[in-house]
Design brief:
Blueprint: H1 4-11, E1 24-30, E2 35-44, E3 47-56, H2 59-72, H3 77-80, H4 85-91, H5 97-103, H6 106-120
Antiparallel strand pairs: 1-2, 2-3
Helix pairs in contact: 1-2
Length: 154
């Protein structure tokens, strides 16, 4: 069901924690499965020098957070914005279909942290991920995977 990389990042997550004086903070969650992710970033010369996360969720959510943080550290803000849920899943060797939407919110939380940093600096956001779903997940059958590809904001 899970790849060896997913299991490794779940059992030995990298970059767990909080940056007390973070330059940007992003938080995403999915009310269907209860996964909640908060990303903290430090930025120097437009480059991510540190990325930490706190995730409450399943093994896939923890693995996604860990992989996203590893993929982002050292990248420019623009390069980090190119990290997508699909690229994180690919780097992990894939995610089960039912876990892809529910647990794969790390890239979106990272993008929110970058936008938060830019907002604090008086710069426009780089992200276009903020949008209205146009529906809620209450009308989905219990145990059914969400039917949209959009992340759920906290």
């Amino acid at each position: 069901m899970y790849s060896d990389k997913v299991m490794d990042h779940f059992m030995h997550p990298r970059n767990v924690g909080e940056i007390a004086d973070a330059d940007g903070i992003g938080e995403m969650g999915n009310p269907v499965c209860g996964d909640m992710m908060t990303f903290y970033i430090k930025v120097e010369n437009n480059r991510l020098t540190d990325v930490k996360f706190k995730t409450f969720g399943c093994g896939a959510a923890i693995a996604v957070s860990s992989m996203t943080s590893e993929m982002a550290i050292g990248k420019t803000l623009e390069e980090a914005m190119l990290i997508t849920p699909q690229s994180v899943a690919d780097e992990l060797g894939g995610l089960p279909k039912v876990k892809f939407h529910c647990s794969n919110l790390g890239a979106d939380a990272l993008h929110q942290a970058i936008d938060d940093y830019r907002k604090k600096k008086g710069l426009p956001p780089l992200s276009s991920s903020e949008h209205d779903h146009g529906h809620d997940h209450d009308d989905e059958a219990e145990g059914e995977a969400p039917s949209c590809d959009a992340p759920c904001k906290v």
